[in-house]
Amino acid sequence: MGAKLGSSGVLGGRRRGDDDLAEAHEINVTPFIDVMLVLLIIFMVAAPLATVDLGVDLPASTAEPQPRPDKPVFVTVKPDLSVAVGEDVIARDALTATLDGATQGNRDERIFLRADKAVSYGELMEVMNLLRNAGYLKIALVGLDGRR
Protein backbone atom coordinates (compact mmCIF):
# COMPACT_ATOMS: atom_id res chain seq x y z
CA MET A 1 0.00 0.00 0.00
CA GLY A 2 2.88 2.25 0.28
CA ALA A 3 4.02 4.21 -2.69
CA LYS A 4 7.24 3.23 -4.13
CA LEU A 5 9.78 5.66 -5.35
CA GLY A 6 11.20 5.19 -8.73
CA SER A 7 14.80 5.81 -9.56
CA SER A 8 14.07 9.41 -10.53
CA GLY A 9 12.59 10.28 -7.11
CA VAL A 10 9.13 11.04 -8.48
CA LEU A 11 6.22 10.23 -6.22
CA GLY A 12 2.94 10.08 -8.06
CA GLY A 13 4.22 12.30 -10.85
CA ARG A 14 5.61 15.05 -8.54
CA ARG A 15 9.07 15.67 -7.22
CA ARG A 16 9.49 15.43 -3.47
CA GLY A 17 11.04 18.89 -3.06
CA ASP A 18 8.19 20.74 -4.84
CA ASP A 19 5.78 20.45 -1.87
CA ASP A 20 7.01 23.83 -0.47
CA LEU A 21 5.24 26.93 -1.72
CA ALA A 22 7.17 28.89 -4.28
CA GLU A 23 8.25 32.37 -3.22
CA ALA A 24 5.97 35.13 -4.52
CA HIS A 25 7.95 37.96 -6.05
CA GLU A 26 4.91 40.20 -6.54
CA ILE A 27 3.67 42.92 -4.17
CA ASN A 28 0.06 42.61 -3.11
CA VAL A 29 -1.34 46.14 -3.57
CA THR A 30 -4.88 45.36 -2.41
CA PRO A 31 -4.27 46.39 1.24
CA PHE A 32 -2.58 49.57 0.05
CA ILE A 33 -5.60 50.46 -2.09
CA ASP A 34 -7.94 49.73 0.82
CA VAL A 35 -6.00 52.06 3.10
CA MET A 36 -5.98 54.80 0.47
CA LEU A 37 -9.74 54.53 -0.04
CA VAL A 38 -10.35 54.78 3.71
CA LEU A 39 -8.13 57.88 3.89
CA LEU A 40 -9.94 59.40 0.92
CA ILE A 41 -13.29 58.92 2.62
CA ILE A 42 -11.98 60.41 5.88
CA PHE A 43 -10.69 63.51 4.08
CA MET A 44 -13.90 63.86 2.08
CA VAL A 45 -15.92 63.87 5.31
CA ALA A 46 -13.50 66.08 7.27
CA ALA A 47 -12.92 68.77 4.61
CA PRO A 48 -16.39 70.36 4.82
CA LEU A 49 -16.15 70.35 8.60
CA ALA A 50 -12.95 72.41 8.47
CA THR A 51 -14.78 75.40 6.95
CA VAL A 52 -16.90 76.65 9.81
CA ASP A 53 -18.92 79.85 9.75
CA LEU A 54 -17.63 82.03 12.53
CA GLY A 55 -19.39 84.93 14.15
CA VAL A 56 -17.37 88.05 13.44
CA ASP A 57 -17.23 90.98 15.85
CA LEU A 58 -15.85 93.64 13.51
CA PRO A 59 -15.71 96.65 15.82
CA ALA A 60 -12.87 95.21 17.94
CA SER A 61 -9.31 95.59 16.68
CA THR A 62 -5.87 94.60 17.96
CA ALA A 63 -3.99 97.00 15.70
CA GLU A 64 -1.82 99.66 17.23
CA PRO A 65 -3.81 102.89 17.43
CA GLN A 66 -2.66 105.64 15.11
CA PRO A 67 -2.07 109.13 16.51
CA ARG A 68 -5.23 111.19 16.38
CA PRO A 69 -5.28 114.54 14.68
CA ASP A 70 -6.07 117.63 16.74
CA LYS A 71 -9.61 117.94 15.38
CA PRO A 72 -10.72 114.61 13.86
CA VAL A 73 -13.80 114.50 11.68
CA PHE A 74 -16.09 111.66 12.74
CA VAL A 75 -18.88 110.30 10.55
CA THR A 76 -21.18 108.05 12.57
CA VAL A 77 -23.81 105.60 11.34
CA LYS A 78 -26.32 105.15 14.15
CA PRO A 79 -28.44 102.02 14.78
CA ASP A 80 -31.46 103.74 13.16
CA LEU A 81 -29.22 104.23 10.04
CA SER A 82 -29.08 108.00 10.45
CA VAL A 83 -25.74 109.65 9.66
CA ALA A 84 -24.01 112.18 11.89
CA VAL A 85 -20.98 114.35 11.26
CA GLY A 86 -19.43 115.12 14.62
CA GLU A 87 -22.43 115.41 16.95
CA ASP A 88 -24.90 116.72 14.36
CA VAL A 89 -27.32 114.32 12.64
CA ILE A 90 -27.63 115.18 8.96
CA ALA A 91 -29.43 113.91 5.89
CA ARG A 92 -27.37 111.64 3.64
CA ASP A 93 -27.68 113.99 0.67
CA ALA A 94 -26.15 116.81 2.77
CA LEU A 95 -23.09 114.73 3.69
CA THR A 96 -20.79 116.28 1.07
CA ALA A 97 -21.60 119.89 2.02
CA THR A 98 -21.31 119.18 5.74
CA LEU A 99 -17.93 117.44 5.31
CA ASP A 100 -16.65 120.28 3.14
CA GLY A 101 -17.53 122.67 5.96
CA ALA A 102 -15.93 120.48 8.63
CA THR A 103 -12.69 119.97 6.68
CA GLN A 104 -12.54 123.46 5.11
CA GLY A 105 -12.67 121.79 1.70
CA ASN A 106 -9.56 119.66 2.30
CA ARG A 107 -10.50 116.33 0.73
CA ASP A 108 -7.15 114.79 1.72
CA GLU A 109 -8.09 114.93 5.39
CA ARG A 110 -8.74 111.57 7.02
CA ILE A 111 -12.40 110.85 7.84
CA PHE A 112 -13.04 108.59 10.84
CA LEU A 113 -16.03 106.37 10.14
CA ARG A 114 -17.71 104.54 12.99
CA ALA A 115 -20.88 102.49 13.07
CA ASP A 116 -22.96 100.68 15.65
CA LYS A 117 -22.77 96.88 15.75
CA ALA A 118 -26.41 96.72 14.70
CA VAL A 119 -25.66 98.46 11.39
CA SER A 120 -25.44 96.01 8.51
CA TYR A 121 -22.32 95.78 6.40
CA GLY A 122 -24.28 96.93 3.34
CA GLU A 123 -25.39 100.14 5.06
CA LEU A 124 -21.81 100.86 6.14
CA MET A 125 -20.61 100.33 2.56
CA GLU A 126 -23.31 102.71 1.32
CA VAL A 127 -21.98 105.48 3.58
CA MET A 128 -18.40 104.68 2.47
CA ASN A 129 -19.54 105.02 -1.15
CA LEU A 130 -21.08 108.41 -0.33
CA LEU A 131 -17.75 109.51 1.18
CA ARG A 132 -15.88 108.23 -1.85
CA ASN A 133 -18.22 109.96 -4.29
CA ALA A 134 -17.71 113.18 -2.32
CA GLY A 135 -13.95 112.85 -2.91
CA TYR A 136 -12.92 111.74 0.58
CA LEU A 137 -10.73 108.69 -0.07
CA LYS A 138 -8.85 108.57 3.25
CA ILE A 139 -11.29 106.76 5.48
CA ALA A 140 -10.36 105.18 8.81
CA LEU A 141 -12.70 102.71 10.49
CA VAL A 142 -13.08 103.25 14.22
CA GLY A 143 -13.45 100.29 16.58
CA LEU A 144 -12.99 99.25 20.18
CA ASP A 145 -9.55 98.33 21.45
CA GLY A 146 -9.54 94.50 21.51
CA ARG A 147 -5.99 94.04 22.86
CA ARG A 148 -7.05 93.25 26.44
From TrEMBL:
Q: What is its main location?
A: membrane
Q: Which Pfam families match?
A: ExbD
What are the record's GO terms for cellular component? plasma membrane
Q: Where are the transmembrane segments?
A: 35-56
Task: Return one GO MF term.
Answer: transmembrane transporter activity
Q: What does the UniProt entry say about where the protein is found?
A: Cell inner membrane; Cell membrane
Q: What is the protein's known function?
A: Involved in the TonB-dependent energy-dependent transport of various receptor-bound substrates.
Family, according to the entry, reads as follows:
Belongs to the ExbD/TolR family.
> What is the recorded name of this protein?
Biopolymer transport protein ExbD
Q: Which organism is it from?
A: Bradyrhizobium macuxiense
Q: What is the lineage of its organism?
A: Bacteria, Pseudomonadati, Pseudomonadota, Alphaproteobacteria, Hyphomicrobiales
